[in-house]
Amino acid sequence: MKLSEIKQILNTVETVNFQLPNGSYVPEYFHVTEVGLITKNFIDCGGTVRKETVVNFQLWDANDFEHRLKPQKLIHIIELSEKVLGIEDFEIEVEYQDHTIGKYDLDFNGKDFQLLNKQTACLAQENCGTPTEKSKLNLTQLHTDNTNSCTPGGSCC
């Protein structure tokens, strides 16, 4: 989800809820402690130099049970960050600490924001030497030719 998309959604919802991949929710008294711009410069295993930029939201559970972040307050935080940090319309990455700090992609299901597990991938598979995926067949799909097969007591083995 891009920054422009979350701002549009926040203008239409009454509450801000984040659902984790396991179906549980970030406690409703969470804080957004950071909105930042993260740029990652790296080289992939094929030798290609790459650059990735995301907007980062950090969610924090402070056990501040009376706190409720309203959609308009989050829009204000985002707009201030855009102005001060020069943030453009990049994809959003969300950090939230459960057992360890997790990084998530963001989506919206019409009611709640969805934290989606991020996945690693090889960006240079043609140079990496990873095997291509073999097609999978059910044993019932195999054609049998009984002239070249062993049968019990056939002494072919």
Can you walk through the features of this model?
The longest helix is centred in the middle third of the chain and has 15 residues, at 71-85. This protein is an alpha/beta fold and 157 residues long. It has 3 helices and 6 strands. It is elongated. Strands 1-6-5-4-3-2 form a 6-stranded mixed sheet, covered by helices on one side. It has helices at 3-10, 71-85, 125-128, and strands spanning 18-19, 31-43, 49-60, 92-97, 101-108, 113-117.
Tell me the strand order in the biggest sheet. Answer: 1-6-5-4-3-2
Q: What is the CA-based Rg, rounded?
A: 25 Å
What profile does the largest beta sheet have?
Answer: 6 strands, mixed
Shape: elongated
